[in-house]
Write a structure and sequence with these properties.
Number of strands: 24
Strand content: 15-25%
CATH architecture of the largest domain: Alpha/alpha barrel
Number of domains: 2
Strand order of the largest sheet: 1-2-3-6
Structural class: alpha+beta
Number of helices: 16
Oligomer: single chain
CATH class of the largest domain: Mainly Alpha
Distance between the termini: 60 Å
Length: about 500
């Protein structure tokens, strides 16, 4: 016996009893269909047994309360419509398959479809297979367009930064598919022209494309073909940061990018409380300018090899590349802390110890001297590394919040002020191997093992978006994160590479 509770709403909304709801139904083979509002598709509910019966018992269930939403301080009550009961008699040992779909199915084929699907989902025997299964579930098609879902169940699909960052891990290390990589990237570039070339509130996001393509080249892609296909996009992004092109960020005379819009958080650390950015970080951001230098250097390198070596782009941007390289280290290096400043504004260097500096020593074309990497890594090790990812702020900072619990205000205060991010392990592990070599293998394995122990804690069989900064490091956020999954896949392959080279 099945009793459906119908909402017909966006996942980020709640519905209430109303007179606009269409409470009628249409009987279909072994089931029933509904469409409560005209801007939704039909919902078909069917059983695999042709003897299924539908009994119309309409009722509104009012004031249903969602305990987790209540605990978090969100709107937590809604009214759901229950139109009746779908039932079938089952003998001992018999079974039935239930289908809920926007398409009407043939009941006689449901059991075979279920069995075929179950066979394709082979038994998971190790952690690597679990990561690959999650990677597959996070790649989806919307109206025939392949995209990456940033995180189940509430994060959006096709986000610029999350797609660029997760793409190599999910498609190359997870699905081992260059075809998926290019299809998703092509779709993203087509859909995100405005953010890539004109304006975005995550100013580093377009610049991440260079790192994404560099990962593709490391995977074995033909560099000439890659540059022929994506070179104009990379060069166009670089050009878009010149003065007068973007309102939110621009290149200064010293070559560095200055990002500032009053009250707006112009980076991935973009939580707000009451309209106020928790981590605004205005000015020269350490990771944005690392991506900036890497993008310019990558574009010049590829254009010289596979484009027009004597062309206008190379002659124009070589001096700018050198200018950025000359300005970066002197601007961000903090001698007292022995690491890089998180950002530099009109008052000087910001001394917050955050993980954004990892990107400066992780990118292929680093804007800092190689000998600084061990010191930067030492600070990150001492202040930010946990058994469940990298903290977003040092526990010694008065702003640090070690637990992601309480009201939305409490959680937003902790989101980038102490919570760990598993995705930052990709950068941390790669830099650690570069500095320490194969001796880092045991620690790298330890840093990833804990996530496998948590597979039944937050989202069953999935890898969470974030963890508490304080022990015992409980998981929170999206129950299945594209960034976390991609990073763990990449780290696993990095570990194997160093094992093979011992």
């Amino acid at each position: 016996m099945l009793k459906p509770f119908l909402a017909f709403r966006n996942i980020h909304a709640l519905t209430q009893r109303n007179d606009d709801a269409n409470t009628s139904f249409t009987e279909i083979p072994a089931g029933v269909s509904f469409r409560m509002y005209p801007n939704f598709p039909d919902l078909h509910l069917q059983l695999s047994d042709k003897a299924a019966e539908w009994k119309f018992l309409p009722c509104w269930n009012n004031r249903i309360t969602y305990s987790d939403e209540y605990r978090r301080g969100f709107d937590c009550t809604e009214d759901l419509y229950t139109p009746g009961i779908l039932s079938v008699r089952l003998g001992k040992g018999s079974s039935v398959v239930f289908s809920a779909s926007v398409d009407e199915e043939d009941p006689a084929k449901l059991k075979r479809a279920f069995s075929d699907g179950a066979r394709k989902c082979h038994e998971i025997t190790n952690s690597r297979e679990q990561l690959e299964r999650c990677a597959d579930t996070l790649i989806t098609r919307h109206n025939g367009v392949e995209m990456i879902n940033a995180g189940l169940s509430w994060m959006y699909t096709g986000l610029l930064r999350e797609t660029l960052q997760a793409l190599p891990g999910l498609t190359l290390h997870g699905l081992h598919s260059a075809a998926h990589f290019e299809e998703i990237l092509d779709n993203l570039i087509s859909a995100e022209q405005e953010r890539l070339f004109h304006r975005t509130t995550q100013v580093e996001a377009p610049l991440y494309l260079a790192s994404t393509l560099q990962a593709y080249l490391d995977y074995g892609a033909d560099p000439a073909a890659v540059w022929k296909k994506y070179g104009d996009t990379v060069k166009g992004i670089v050009e878009s940061y010149l003065p007068g092109q973007r309102r939110e960020v621009t290149m200064h005379p010293n070559g560095l990018l200055w990002a500032q819009m009053d009250g707006v958080a112009l980076s991935w650390m973009n939580a707000y409380i009451g309209g106020r950015a928790v981590t605004e970080r205005p000015g020269y951001q350490v990771e944005t300018n690392a991506f900036w230098y890497n993008s310019i250097a990558f574009a010049i390198e590829m254009e010289e090899k596979y484009g027009e070596a004597d062309g206008d782009f190379v002659s124009k941007w070589k001096p700018i590349r050198d200018l950025v390289r000359g300005s970066y280290q002197s601007t961000f290096w903090n001698e007292r802390n022995g690491c890089l400043a998180d950002y530099v504004d009109g008052y000087g260097q910001n001394g917050d110890i955050r993980p954004n500096q990892l990107y400066a020593v992780w990118v292929k074309h680093s804007p800092v001297d190689e000998e600084l990497a061990p010191g930067i890594l030492r600070v990150v090790d001492n202040e930010l590394v946990t058994s469940r990812g990298i903290r977003t702020l040092s526990p010694r900072d008065p702003k640090y919040r070690g637990v992601y619990e309480g009201s939305q205000l409490d959680r937003d205060n902790a989101y980038h002020q102490g919570c760990t991010r598993p995705f930052l392990l990709e950068q941390y592990v790669e830099v650690s191997f570069r500095v320490k070599g194969p001796s880092f293998i045991k620690k790298a394995e330890w840093l990833t093992e804990g996530f496998m122990a948590d597979l039944s804690k937050h989202g069953v069989g999935a890898f969470s978006e974030l963890y508490d900064g304080d022990p015992p490091h409980e998981p929170h956020g999206a129950i299945s994160s594209a960034l976390s999954t991609a990073a763990l896949l990449t780290v696993a392959d990095t570990i194997e590479k160093y094992k093979d080279n011992r």
